[in-house]
Amino acid sequence: MDSRARFKKLGPWITRFWVGGEPMGGSRYDPAGDSRIAMFKSAAGPLAGKRLLELGPLEGAHTVQLVEEGASVVAIEGRESNYRRCLFIKELFALDSAEFILGDLRQVDLDSLGRFDAIFNVGVLYHLDEPWKLLTRLGRVSDRMFLSTHCAPPGKADAVIEVDRQQLRGMWWREGTVKDPLSGLQKRSFWPTQQCLEEMLTLTEWTQITWLDYAADHVNGPLGSLWTERPAG
After folding, report:
1. In the chain, where are the structural domains located?
2. Confidence (pTM)
3. Are 98 and 73 in contact (CB under 8 A)?
4. N or C: which end of the chain has fewer CB atoms below 10 A?
5. Residue 197: exposure state from Cβ atoms within 10 A (0-12, 13-18, ≥19)
6. Looking at domain 3-229, does it have CATH number 3.40.50.150?
């Protein structure tokens, strides 16, 4: 079976991939227009030889770019249909230094994966109802992280949660259906405001924070990208 037939069999796809100069896969997302890999590289420095943890690879588009930069990548995907597409992309693009793991990030034993030079955390945090718990666990496997996530618009931040006796303001977001490949794995998620995202990071000991981009008018809600570090060790 040729690549185009295999693409079709594994569909429907979200991501458009370019193979031999031809577009294959979906049309909703083209990684060529995504600036977040460039922001990650700018903050993290050269990626060649680095061991990276990628959260929620979806269909493997970012993984391809990270491996092409010379990194080795461990990527954790929660949806089996997305995971199968990732494995196909790994084979198609010969991503020998990429490992895909199927599992819910709330349950995966991150400590068993060892240490990472950096974390590529894109499009995941805003799918969680207790995002601070993941931030705490990530701090045990790396001291450096690129984070891109949606935030609550201040005018819609009508929810307050308490973390370590500190109140954080944000909004509850209803997740999509189980079959939606872009939805989270739970019924609702918590989006903090931009300010409270910083406070959440600080509470979980990600104390050095540099904002790289913040699109307040993003079609799906304010979208921020930042680089954060924590004390080594």
Report:
1. 3-229
2. 0.95
3. yes
4. C
5. buried
6. yes
